[in-house]
Amino acid sequence: MMRISSQQIFSSGISRLQELNTSLNNTQQQISTGKRVNQPSDDPVAAARILKLDQELARVETYQRNVDLADNRLSQEESALQSATDIIQRIRELTVQAGNGALSVNDRQSIASEMKERLEQLATVANTQDASGEYIFSGFQGSVQSFKQDATGSWVYQGDEGQRVLEIDDGVTVPISDHGKGIFVNVPEAITGEHTNLVNPDAYISGVKLVSEADLAAEYPNAFPDDITVEIQADGTLLAIDAQGDVLTVEPATYESGEPFVVAGIEMTITDAVPGAGDQFTIDVNGKQSVFASIENLIAGLTTLDKSTGQGNSAYDDLIAQSLVNLDNAQESMVLKQTEIGGRMNAVESTKTFLEDSSVYSNEIRSQLQDVDYAEAISNLSFQSFVLQAAQQSFAQVSQLSLFDRL
Fold first, then answer.
1. Domain 35-188+291-371, CATH 1.10.10.10 — does that match?
2. Which of 20, 109, 202, 407 would disulfide-bridge 388, Cβ 3.0–4.6 Å?
3. Are 203 and 271 in contact (CB under 8 A)?
């Protein structure tokens, strides 16, 4: 027969009561916190999975902040470029108006005055700052104002050519900025002509314009030259040479003052009151000019060019025609950049949707592992309370049993 001492009865009873108390306390904690797993010992496997899910949710949250930042920066840049495009469109309308030959000097002065105001507006847009005060078009030099006026009053780019990139998911990056040099400065310039060496000081070139892009490309299959030199020869013919020294075809080859001719798809007219051999002119084919410089030159021409002479009138007409091309090129440059930004914003939006779905999925799994089932927990609490009370009553009765009670 096995002997059970009073000490064993007391120890066993107390241990059982402690176990029931612990279970009851755990259930109460689950109900109060709403979590089934409050510490690793509650469910080691679930606790490990919950830890990994917490890390995944933290990663997603970080990328979601980056996505919001990227979306805000790109939206702000897109809005700024749209404002710049609208301003340039208004200047273009004024330029067309200025081309009206019936305008007086005062009319041109009024147009130039409004253009100056629009130019200031364009500079303000180009110096747009984000919420943190950084200039969005200054590249990496966010603290540096993008455009400032130099000693002559011309707007000059101050930033660098850096492009900021932000990671919006593992291995997924998106540019969130564009430097102002690429948008506002490196704008293709209208083809222009100027004298290089004049035997006759009254000679001038005018009406320079591209009439056949295919012919221009055919003349230069590999690369465009920096310029073309046109010279009047002693025999009355025209000689055209590109930057590589190659002789180009001139049609018609015989020079006639005031009559247009074509070189490599570019039409132009040389006017020389007294034709003289040796007069040279340079045609700038692929120049670049800032949109600010284009507008500044236009304003200066409107206020200074004298249309009372034939040369002045031709220069004015060329100014209007070339300015329209320059403004169109600036608008096209901005529209292309807006299209590029739109593609980035689509990528950001797709990543944002993916991260949101990932967050929802991870939270659902985490909830299944960690959140308590209140109905089950409350039922367990009632049962555990009943068992604990029964155990306490049983222990109280057993603890009173003693051999001395029978003596």
1. no
2. 20
3. yes
